[in-house]
Amino acid sequence: PGDQEAGELGLAAVPGRQAAFRQGLEEAVHYARAVGCPRIHVMAGRVPLGTDRAAVAGEMETTFIENLRYTADLLSQEDMIGLLEPINNRITDPRYYLNTPQQAAAILEKVGRPNLKLQLDLFHCQIMDGNLSRNLETYLPLIGHIQIAQVPGRHEPDSPGELNFPYIFELLESLGYTGYVGCEYAPKGDTLEGLGWLRSYWESRGLQHGGTSKAAK
C-alpha cells in the first residue's frame, strides 16, 4: 500500500515511486511465501494531490504497465498471481486511479502477462457500472479473485441493499468459476453472527456447514 500515513494507497501507477513499489512488492512476496498465499493484490494507487486526473492519466498508465511487467516477471519465479482491483471513485476513494473492470481489462491486455489477473470486487463494480451478470460473463477469463459486500452499506450479503447474492452465487457456479470468493465487508455485529448468511445459503443449496453435501453423507 505504500506510505499510508502520507496518504498513499498503493504505488504501482504512481510516477516517481517505482523504487518504493519494487521494495514493497518484494516484501509482499516474502510474506506471501511464508503464509503460502499464491495471490498478491498489486494496488494501483491514487492520483497525486493537486493534479488533474485526465492530465496525468497517460503517465500513470505508462508507469502502471511498466511496474506490472516487472511484477509479472518477479511473481512468475514464485508461481504467484498478481491481482488488479478496480476501486470505485464515487464513494470509497475519489482519487484512486483504477476504477472499473473495463479499465483494468484494457491494462491487462496491454501488459499481456498470464500471471496477472482481475480482482473483481462486486461492491465496487456495482457502484461504478452495475450490469453485474454481463460483467461477470465478460470478464470471467480474466478473473483471479472475487470479493463481495452488499451495496451501499458494505455489510453482509444478506443485509438490506441492491445485490441479490443467491442469484450471483448461482451465476458464478453456472459460469464455472472455481476460485475464492472473499468476504470483504464490515460485519454489522460480530464475525460469527455475521456468517449466518452463509449457513442459510448452504442450507438452501442442500449442503451442511462447510459446504459438504448431505446426500454424500
Automatic annotation (TrEMBL):
Segments spanning the bilayer are none
Domain Xylose isomerase-like TIM barrel positions: 10-200
Which superkingdom is the protein from?
Eukaryota
* Swiss-Prot/TrEMBL catalytic activity: 3-hydroxypyruvate = 2-hydroxy-3-oxopropanoate
Q: Looking at its record, which EC class is this enzyme?
A: isomerase
Q: What is its EC number?
A: 5.3.1.22
Keywords from UniProt, A to Z, are:
Isomerase
Kindly indicate whether the keyword rRNA processing belongs to this entry: no
Q: Which residues does the Swiss-Prot or TrEMBL record annotate as the active site? A: E85, E184
The similarity comment for this entry is: Belongs to the hyi family.
Provide the function of this protein: Catalyzes the reversible isomerization between hydroxypyruvate and 2-hydroxy-3-oxopropanoate (also termed tartronate semialdehyde).
What is this protein's record name?
Answer: Putative hydroxypyruvate isomerase
Native source organism of the sequence: Vidua chalybeata (Village indigobird)
The gene behind this protein is Hyi
